[in-house]
Structure formats: structure tokens, C-alpha cells
Amino acid sequence: MRGEATVLHADLDAFYASVEQRDDSALRGRPIIVGGGVVVAASYEAKARGVRTAMGVQRARALCPDAIIVPPRMEAYSAASRAVFAIFHDTTPHVEGVSIDEAFLEVGGLRRLAGTPEEIAVRLRERVRAEAGLPISVGVARTKFLAKVASAVSKPDGLLLVRPDHEEAFLHPLPVERLWGVGAVTAEKLHSNGVYTVGQLAELEAATAERWLGKAAGAHLHALARLRDPRPVATTKRHGSIGSQRALGNRSYTAGELGLILTQIVDGLAKRLRDRGSSCATVVLRLRYGDFTKATRSRTLAAPTDRTEVLLGVAQQLLDAAGPDISGRGVTLIGVSLAQLTSAGRMQLELPIDWHDGARIDTALDAVRDRFGSAAVTRAALIGRDPGWSAPRLPEHE
């Protein structure tokens, strides 16, 4: 017998664009594009005209000439996210954040205190609308996968409950693209074999799906199609890396400009690292070129650190090593991840300790930014620069 539908997937609708419309009444009901060289987010009014995330702004303008383009305001989005997540945590102690604008919530066991999962979802949506001023879609189901699909189907600004006895009737008629992990390439492989719906995939033998898609991917997607997803809502998960990336659009950037963007990224990541009381041992640089190929470079330090200057120096060395490719092929995305995280309190210090290093400077700068905002103090190299450039930040991960 299947269990009760107690997992909520809460997903803010067109998050960045919704924040812009919330904060400026003149933008409400209008097609909004958030971005610089590329579309970082689009309102539903713009999406209805064919505008999609990661599309070039020039193409988006051709599809929607009356769109209003606004630069990203990451501090506003982060503040809105914190307000919404505070509501999540006030609803249940079992919250698994997926990104800046979505989370899973486990509400099983709250029936006596808060009502049924559907009733909890209704109140959650009302609170997010009233307290954060934002629309949110919620899916309620027995598993995380089904809850995520339900929230997507309910968009925009909807609520959908998938009852355990109605799971196959809900899922199997949907296109295979609704499965978690099916992108354009996988969808084409399935289509070429006559599989267009989730139900058709579920009818296959697992070995057939594995032969077409590869052992791991085939087994995973076949299990989802047959409603098998044992993953619980993970509330105590500690992530092994944090990262941030910027989409740069199609214009070419000099090595100096890329270095400044890299400085902005590492400066913010190092502060996040110290805020969580961690150090990192590995710096990873990711680049995407104009021909859509990607490159990843990494370096592991002799000892974990949370110092901005050390991390920035390593990141810059990785970027310098990619110099010939940058000038020849152009860079359309740059990202940095800090990996192999360790609790700062457990880090073994090297001797002799140099008390004239940048550790105390980092701490002082963090305190100023915490009190007066991230723009209160900046590096000399960034003075007079637009923090957004035409290189909007994409959603960060932790």
C-alpha cells in the first residue's frame, strides 16, 4: 500500500521577474526580461511570446519587441528568497532547499497541529503572497519527484495534489520531457524509438531503457516512470561545494574584463564561505565558449583556506592558463566553485602563522558588508564598474 502524499515542492513563479514586478507597479502585467547579454529570467507575459531563459537578449527582443529589460538585482532576489525560506521553516522543520527559489517540505506528522498536507500547502501559498508579495506554485505528492512534476504542471501560481491512488493516471500521459533529467538529447533518443509519453517509457523493460540511454540514466528514468523514488526530504544535508557563475552574452571580453568579473565572483563566494564557518581545499573554474564547448579547470591547495586573496589568486591562475582559448574562441559563461569544504574550526593551522596576512582584512570587510550592504566597500579594481556589467549572475548553488 502506498503512503500518504506528504511531500510539498514549492517553486516561486518566474522568481526574478516577479520580484521586479512586485517592486515596481509599472511593470505588473507587462512582459519583463531580466538580464544583460542573455535572458536570466522572463515574466510569464514574456514567456507567452516565446522568450526563454538563457536566450540571447537580441533574439528575445525580436520575439517580444515591447519587452521591458531590467538589469539583475541579486541583493533584492536574495532578500526575497530569505523571506520565503523563513516561511518554509516556520511551516515545518523539514525543509530541503533546492535553489534560491524552490524547496521540498516534508509535512507528514503535522496533521493534528496544522491539518492535511493540502491545507498546509494552501496556507503556505497564502503566506508567501501576503508576506513576501510573490506568487508560488506548490505540488503535493507522495514522493519528491511527483511533487516537483505537480508543481510544474500547476504553474503559474497554482496548487496540485497528486493522490497516491491517482499517480499513474497523472504521470503516464505526460510527455517524457517532464521526467527529472530528460533534456533535449535524451528526449530525441526516446522519440527516435517511438517513446513520447512517460507511460510508454514505463511499459518498456528496464534493460531496454538502459540500452538506449546508458545504464545509469536508463535505470533512473525507468524507475521514475514506474513511480519509484525513495529519496527522502534531506534536511541535514551538508553540501560539499558552493559556487556562482555569470552568463556573458555574445560580446567579446578582454582578459582584464574577465579578471574583474572573476574578482566579483570569488569575492562573494569567499564571504559566503566564511559566513558558514567553512574553508575550502579545491578551486574549480568553469568556462563556456562561443562555440558552446565547455572547459573545467581545478586546483587543490596544500591546506584548506577561507582567505579571499588566496582563492582569487588560484582562480586567476586557472583563468590565465586558459588564455589562448579565451582569445580565440570567446567566453560566454564563467563560473567558480569552491569544493572540498571543511569546518573552519577543524582546520589545522600551518606554522609559522603570519598574523599580517589578509585574514583580519577579510573579517573586517565581511562585517562592513553585513551591516551596510555588499556595495558599501569594494575592491579598487572594481571602482566605477557596474556590479552587474552585462554579465548577469545565474542562480548560485550551495
UniProtKB/TrEMBL annotation:
Q: Which residues form the signal peptide?
A: none
Q: Which SUPFAM superfamilies match?
A: DNA/RNA polymerases, Lesion bypass DNA polymerase (Y-family), little finger domain
User: What does the record give as the active site?
Assistant: 102
Compartment(s): Cytoplasm
Specify the enzyme's EC class, one word: transferase
Where is Mg(2+) bound in this sequence?
11, 101
UmuC domain location is 7-183
Q: How is the cofactor bound?
A: Binds 2 magnesium ions per subunit.
**UniProt keyword list:** Cytoplasm, DNA damage, DNA repair, DNA replication, DNA-binding, DNA-directed DNA polymerase, Magnesium, Metal-binding, Mutator protein, Nucleotidyltransferase, Transferase
Give the source's domain of life in one word.
Bacteria
Q: Do you know which Gene3D superfamilies this protein is assigned to?
A: 3.30.70.270, 3.40.1170.60, 5' to 3' exonuclease, C-terminal subdomain, DNA polymerase, Y-family, little finger domain
Q: Short name of one Pfam family for this protein?
A: IMS_C
Question: What are the required cofactors?
Answer: Mg(2+)
Q: Mind telling me which residues the site (Substrate discrimination) is annotated on?
A: 16
The protein's annotated catalytic reaction(s) are: DNA(n) + a 2'-deoxyribonucleoside 5'-triphosphate = DNA(n+1) + diphosphate
Look up the EC number in the record and give it: 2.7.7.7
Q: How does it assemble?
A: Monomer.
Briefly, what is this protein's role? Poorly processive, error-prone DNA polymerase involved in untargeted mutagenesis. Copies undamaged DNA at stalled replication forks, which arise in vivo from mismatched or misaligned primer ends. These misaligned primers can be extended by PolIV. Exhibits no 3'-5' exonuclease (proofreading) activity. May be involved in translesional synthesis, in conjunction with the beta clamp from PolIII.
Family in the record: Belongs to the DNA polymerase type-Y family.
Q: What PANTHER family would the database entry show? A: DNA POLYMERASE KAPPA, DNA REPAIR POLYMERASE UMUC / TRANSFERASE FAMILY MEMBER
Name this protein carries in UniProt: DNA polymerase IV
The organism encoding this protein is Demequina sediminis
Gene behind the chain = dinB1
